[in-house]
Amino acid sequence: MGFLRRIESKLEGVFEGGIGRTFKSNVQPVELARKLAKEMDDNKVISVQTVYVPNAYTVYLAPEDREQFVAYEARLRTELAGYLTEHARREGYSLPNRARVMIETADELDLGTFGIAAEMEETPPPMAPDAPPPGVRLPEEFSGDPAPPVAAAAPIVTPPPAAPVVPVAPPVAPPPPAAPAAPAVTVPPVTVDPFAVDEAPAAPVAPVAAVPEPAAAAPVVTPPPPPPAPVAEWVLVWPGGVVPFGTTALVIGRSKDCDVPLADGNVSRRHAEIGRSADGFLLRDLDSTNGTTVNGRRVKSATVGEGDEIMLGTSTLRIEQRHG
Question: What is the rounded CA–CA span in Å between residue 81 and residue 93?
């Protein structure tokens, strides 16, 4: 008992809360949930018409205990925060801000022992104006006209060169056959009349050879155009299906009016929104109760792209590029 008192006295300067009991084995998440709910009940403040309870909780674990949660610590913190939110709603408590659970390592603690600090965290100043309703174009920070994704260039197919057209020479008419030699005729002497007018005999007209018509040119065959290249499209994959990105932001939340309606009790009615930006896609949390994480890191606003894991409550979303 003296050892636990020393730990409590060392931690009480930075937080109020008890030390969990010593377990024979590692601390289990269900024990943390029960202890967090008890800390909420023990630290409630009764006002005139409202019962206030702390909303920020820090769990201190021994190094060996925290090591077992490394693979899913971000999801565990989200689950514990959702459990506290539901416990406050069920008991009629009022949280000054959304519930938040952090996990820290305390080297002074032994295996199976843990401590919890509870405090009220005031509502932070608004980070951005109210979110626009679904279908309204994004604000200036989302970059109004992002460049559409470049489709993969189709290979350029060069048609083979057309065969040269060789002009066909017209056929040459064969020479006319030689006339047979006339037999020699003995001409009797003729008396020439000096007063007669000499008439030159008409020259024989040579036959005109027929000129053949030129051969028709071979038709030029035009190769068919290449098929159109497939069009690339960016989509948001969520547990309920696939939604393509357009020129406006996609609103994600539990409400059926959202572009991406999630049937998740840990998701706010209007939880977050995502849309195109000059650097890819911009994700923005809309002051949700349980917050938004990207690759296990809680964010208020972040640039995301293909391969990033977006977590809202217990739902996982991702961005993919698909070709039509």
Answer: 15
Global pTM value:
0.35
Residues 70, 145 contacting (CB under 8 angstroms): no
Who contacts 177 (Cβ-Cβ below 8 Å, separation ≥6)? none
- Return d(Cα 119, Cα 100) in angstroms, integer: 10
Q: What confidence score (pLDDT) does residue 174 get?
A: 65
Q: Which of 124, 307, 288 is nearest to 299 (CA)?
A: 288
Is residue 259 within 8 A of residue 252, CB to CB? The reply is yes
Name the 3-class secondary structure at 128. coil
Tokens coding 139: 């604000």
pLDDT, tens only, 53-105 = 999 999 999 999 899 898 889 999 999 999 999 999 999 999 988 999 999 99
- What tokens appear for 313 in the block? 């409550």
Report the b/e string of 70-95 with b at 16+ CB within 10 A.
Answer: eeeebbbbbbbbbbbbebbeeeebeb
The Cα 185–Cα 44 span in angstroms is 155
How far is C-alpha 275 from the chain's CA centre? Answer: 10
CA dist., res. 249 & res. 114, Å (int): 43
Residue 301 host element (H or E): strand 301-304
3-state secondary structure of 35: helix
